[in-house]
Structure formats: structure tokens, C-alpha cells
Amino acid sequence: MEADLIRRAAQGDAEAFEALVRQHEQIVFRLAYLIVGDADDAQDIAQETFIRAYHALPHFDTERPLRPWLLQITRNLARNRRRALGRYAAALTRAFRSAPQTTHSAEAEHAQRGEVQALWDAIRTLDARDQEIIYLRYMLELPVAETADILNVEPGTVKSRLSRALTRLRGVVEADFPLLAEGRRP
Fold it and tell me: pLDDT at position 142, please?
């Protein structure tokens, strides 16, 4: 069905393209948001992703799934935006502070907020490549194969990069965030 929508959209069928956008807009926005940390910038990136995809659809191989291709476009645009704007860390902090919490106790909420903030801070100390692999696998919960397609690498490379990123993250947590490390269960 997706291949049919792609073919129709490539031929100028606006309804088919709108259907494709609806299917993928949330994950495109989420990835952009994870990379740039600002909802307005993420929305701009999502729109630009779909504009670029629309123009490239006539050349897209309909035998391939659309989502990894869209997420590759999103990733590239978001990385460019992050470099250009230099607001990544501040925007991510603002986003965390506005995220809803699920705990009911004020003490538990404060502790949880501190742990989440510490984890975000720890992740942000990693290089962009390590951050991306963690975002794709754990925040967006994408399978290894799809993550490999997005990053344009082999699935084994995803696994090894993820392992190295998590090892580096553990090192950062143990060295710079000891309270977070203490809260970790064996």
C-alpha cells in the first residue's frame, strides 16, 4: 500500500502525499526534536523534510520502505540546523523542564526530575554520533535494521556503535554523575 501511495504522490497526487505525511510526520518531528531540542525548529525541519521528499519522490525506489529514507533526510537537516543555531543544549533543557511528570509525590517527582536531567546532561556530553544512536534506538525505539538504514551502515555497525556509546555513557555517569550511578540497579 505504501508503494502505491509513493507512486501516486510522485505523479502529483496531493491526497496520496498527504497520507504519507500523516503516516510519518510524528516520527519525523520526534527525531528532529531529539536532535535540535526545540519544538519550533523541529517543526521547521519536519516541513523541510517533507518538501525535500516530495521533490525527490519520482526518484525513490518504491521497493524500499519510506520511513528510513525520511529519517535520513530529517537527521541531516537537523544536524545542519543544530550546528548553525548552536542552541541545542539550552533548548533541550527547556524541553525537559516542560515535560509532564507521571509521579504523584512532590519528593519523588523532584528526585525523578533530577535523575532525568542528569541523564540528559550525561548524554549531551557525548559526541553527536553517540547521541544519535542512543536517540534512534532508545528514545525513538527503532529496530536495529531501521536504525542501520537511517545511518547508512550495517546492522552490526549499529550494534557495535551502540555498545561503544553506552560504554562511554556509563563512564560519563560514573565519573561526572555519581548520584545517577548510585541509583542504577545491578
Answer: 86
pTM passes above 0.70: no
HSE (CB half, 13 Å, CA atoms) of 169? 23
The string of DSSP letters for 66-131 reads: HHHHHHHHHHHHHHHHHHHH--HHHHHHHHHHHS-----SHHHHHHHHHHHHHHHHHHHTS-HHHH
pLDDT, position 98: 54
In the chain, what is the greatest distance between 2 CA atoms, to the nearest angstrom?
57
Angstrom CA distances, 140 to 34, 88, 108, 133, stand at: 9, 18, 26, 10
Q: Which among 126, 185, 116 is positioned nearest to 161, based on CA atoms?
A: 126
Grid cell 505525511 in the structure block, residue: 21
Residue with cell 526518484: 59
With a pLDDT cut of 90, the percent of the chain lying above it is 46
| pLDDT the model gives residue 176 | 86
